[in-house]
């Protein structure tokens, strides 16, 4: 008996002309709105990163003829790369270079940040001066250093001889060339570590420091027991950014050494550039770089996971 | 500010926000440098000493726990710095954890603790090395009302057990009244009165303290002494005063203006007319269960009284107010110091 009434029953709050259908479409519209809003960004990201990445994976499975024209699908590029001594030599150089520069840059960045973290006018100017190298184009930095480190007419050797030290063939021997490209990277990118760590330092809570002072901690103990543990997340962020960047370094080698002398400074990016541009073997180069990408992602993942674990365990 | 704290005393520095009480505490701790003056602990001048040399410990308003350390590591950190052997550290941490009832929290990080638990850990870290002086900077202000009452008792009990000279900063007069051996009231960077809680309440040194201490606040009515007539003119009513009062006022008042302070519990309210009573009109009543607050209008003045909870009072009802002259505080109109 009540069925008929229930069917005809209307919600007193509902507008008489608002049928069930229109209500649903409004809901659907509202539900979809955020997706519509982020669609342009997604499209842009897709165009700029996903599509080229997908294309490079596609290329890495292509065979190319001598003239650089695709010559069909092949799975041998990855096998060729993974069995190549030259590739693993370059991988070794890339990782040695990366660990070297990142460790030194992090250390110097931390020391500099600790030195200039106090608020004063002089420190304010110093902070600006310290980040200037980061603003210069890497290519320009490479050219400046090539001139400065020139064995015969560079200012570096002129200064060394002026203070009575023997001249150094900066780019002429394997070890010197390797250390020189490290030096250039350290000069240019220490400011980035410095800036990130400085920002972290200045955002740390001040109360634990005062508590530590009252507890009787020395400056060194405060650094070891309070500052460094609290800075850990920031240090990991700087570490991830710099590691990803250093693993794909190209500019300095291109301008300063062209991978030489011999293959002493031939990092992966430069090796693959040579393979692609000189031998037109785009498939091999794409495969080699894709393997480097996998290593980079793995390394970053490990670092970020360590960071997340630390954040879960500690922090108020 | 000249302030001497007795050995083993629990002194509360009380005042409104921005009066300089926390700054005074931080100067004593060595976290801020005084622009002038001297600080002594015992007979030793400590003004130029580093905080760690002063043998002071402090509980911060924000607790200031080390977020990356466990409760055990937090508590024992002052001992670790002093290179105390591990076994002794553990023994002392267990003792403190027992006193503060945080034994089951020792392995947790501060993030996993409630406000009250963090407060206990902060207390533990401060107490473990048995300092000369124990400072607390509004340690209960981040806790909810119930926990605050509980921790108030805990801290008071802890002080009586350990007997460490303590300086406690707060803006909460209830905390000050319930915990302190003596209260130092500060305002505008100056010490206004230093006395025991009861004395502060019953004999406020000036108008500011009279109005600051007590809830509801003391009724403060401005008046004008008519010397020739021996009366105090309070605008809405005139108060005849006896010979003794007249002599005191004549001697001590700097002018003719004054403030009369009457605590709400000293105001008698009668619903039926009293010949000597002051006629008033009920403005609003606020029942609190065990008592009732009645706010009344006498001319332009507002008078607050605490009355029995079952007293039948309605808004706009006429009532008659009386008060015992012995309970009235008189403050000088210009210096605002207490006269009677």
From TrEMBL, chain A:
Compartment list: Cell membrane
Region: Disordered, residue numbers = 1-23
Q: Which Gene3D superfamilies match?
A: MetI-like
User: Which regions are flagged for Basic and acidic residues bias?
Assistant: 1-14
Entry's Gene Ontology cellular component terms? plasma membrane
Q: Name one GO biological process term.
A: transmembrane transport
Keyword check for Transmembrane: yes
For this protein, the record's SUPFAM superfamilies field holds: MalF N-terminal region-like, MetI-like
Q: Which UniProt keywords apply?
A: Cell membrane, Membrane, Sugar transport, Transmembrane, Transmembrane helix, Transport
The name of this protein is: Multiple sugar transport system permease protein
TrEMBL record, chain B:
Q: Mind telling me which SUPFAM superfamilies this protein's record contains? A: MOP-like, P-loop containing nucleoside triphosphate hydrolases
Q: Which GO terms describe its cellular component?
A: ATP-binding cassette (ABC) transporter complex, substrate-binding subunit-containing
Which Pfam families does the UniProt record give?
Answer: ABC_tran (PF00005), TOBE_2 (PF08402)
Molecular function (GO) terms listed? Answer: ABC-type transporter activity; ATP binding; ATP hydrolysis activity
Chain coiled-coil ranges: none
Q: Which domain of life is it from?
A: Bacteria
Which protein is depicted? Answer: Multiple sugar transport system ATP-binding protein
Q: In which organism is this protein found? A: Geomicrobium halophilum
């Amino acid at each position: 008996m009540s069925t008929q009434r229930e069917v005809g029953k209307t919600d007193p709050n509902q507008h008489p002309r608002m049928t069930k259908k229109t209500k649903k479409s409004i809901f659907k519209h509202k539900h979809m709105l955020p997706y519509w809003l982020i669609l342009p960004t997604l499209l842009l990201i897709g165009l700029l990163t996903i599509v080229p990445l997908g294309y490079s994976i596609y290329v890495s499975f292509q065979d190319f003829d001598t003239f650089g024209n695709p010559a069909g699908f092949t799975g041998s590029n990855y096998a060729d790369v993974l069995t190549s001594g030259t590739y693993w030599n370059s991988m070794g150089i890339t990782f040695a270079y990366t660990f070297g520069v990142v460790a030194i840059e992090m250390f110097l960045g931390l020391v500099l940040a600790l030195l200039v973290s106090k608020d004063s006018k002089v420190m304010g100017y110093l902070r600006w001066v310290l980040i200037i190298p980061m603003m210069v184009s890497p290519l320009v930095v490479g050219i400046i250093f090539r001139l400065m480190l020139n064995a015969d007419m560079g200012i570096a050797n002129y200064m060394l001889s002026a203070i009575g030290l023997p001249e150094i063939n900066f780019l002429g021997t394997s070890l010197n060339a390797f250390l020189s490209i490290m030096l250039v990277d350290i000069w240019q990118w220490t400011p980035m570590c410095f800036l990130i760590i400085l920002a972290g330092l200045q955002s740390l809570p001040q109360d634990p420091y005062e508590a530590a002072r009252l507890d009787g901690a020395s400056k060194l103990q405060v650094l070891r027991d309070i500052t460094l543990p609290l800075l850990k997340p920031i240090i990991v962020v700087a570490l991830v950014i710099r590691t990803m960047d250093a693993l794909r370094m190209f500019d300095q080698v291109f301008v300063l050494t062209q991978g030489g002398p011999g293959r002493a400074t031939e990092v992966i990016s430069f090796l693959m550039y040579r393979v692609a541009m000189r031998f037109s073997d785009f498939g091999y180069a794409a495969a080699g770089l894709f393997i480097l990408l996998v290593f980079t992602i793995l390394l970053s993942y490990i670092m970020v996971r360590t960071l997340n674990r630390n954040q879960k365990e500690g922090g108020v | 500010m000249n302030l001497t704290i007795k050995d083993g005393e629990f002194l509360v520095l009380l005042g409104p926000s921005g009066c300089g009480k926390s700054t005074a505490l931080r100067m004593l701790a060595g976290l801020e440098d005084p622009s002038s003056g001297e600080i002594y602990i015992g007979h030793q001048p400590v003004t130029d000493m580093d905080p760690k040399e002063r043998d002071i410990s402090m509980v911060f308003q924000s607790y200031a726990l080390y977020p990356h350390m466990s409760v055990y590591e937090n508590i024992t950190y002052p001992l670790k710095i002093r290179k105390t052997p591990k076994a002794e550290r553990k023994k002392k941490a267990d003792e403190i954890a027992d006193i503060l009832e945080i034994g089951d929290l020792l392995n947790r990080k501060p993030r996993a603790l409630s406000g009250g638990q963090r407060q206990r850990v902060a207390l533990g870290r401060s107490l473990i090395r048995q300092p000369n002086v124990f400072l607390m900077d509004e340690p209960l202000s981040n806790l909810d009302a119930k926990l605050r009452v509980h921790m108030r008792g805990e801290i008071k009990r802890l002080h009586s057990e350990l007997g460490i000279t303590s300086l406690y900063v707060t803006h909460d007069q209830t905390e000050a009244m319930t915990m302190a051996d003596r209260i130092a009231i500060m305002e505008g960077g100056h010490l206004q009165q230093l006395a025991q809680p009861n004395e502060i309440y019953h004999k406020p040194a000036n108008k500011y303290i009279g109005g600051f201490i007590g809830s509801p606040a003391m009724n403060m009515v401005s008046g004008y002494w008519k010397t020739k007539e021996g009366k105090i003119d309070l605008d809405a009513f005139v108060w005849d005063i006896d010979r003794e009062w007249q002599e005191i006022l004549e001697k001590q008042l700097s002018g003719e203006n004054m403030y009369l302070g009457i605590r709400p519990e000293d105001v008698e309210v009668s619903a039926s007319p009293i010949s000597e009573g002051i006629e008033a009109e009920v403005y609003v009543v606020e029942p609190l269960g065990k008592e009732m607050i009645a706010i009344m209008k006498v001319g332009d003045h507002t008078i607050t009284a605490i009355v029995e909870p079952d007293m039948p009072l309605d808004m706009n009802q006429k009532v008659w107010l009386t008060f015992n002259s012995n309970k009235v505080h008189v403050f000088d109109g210009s210096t605002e110091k207490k006269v009677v």
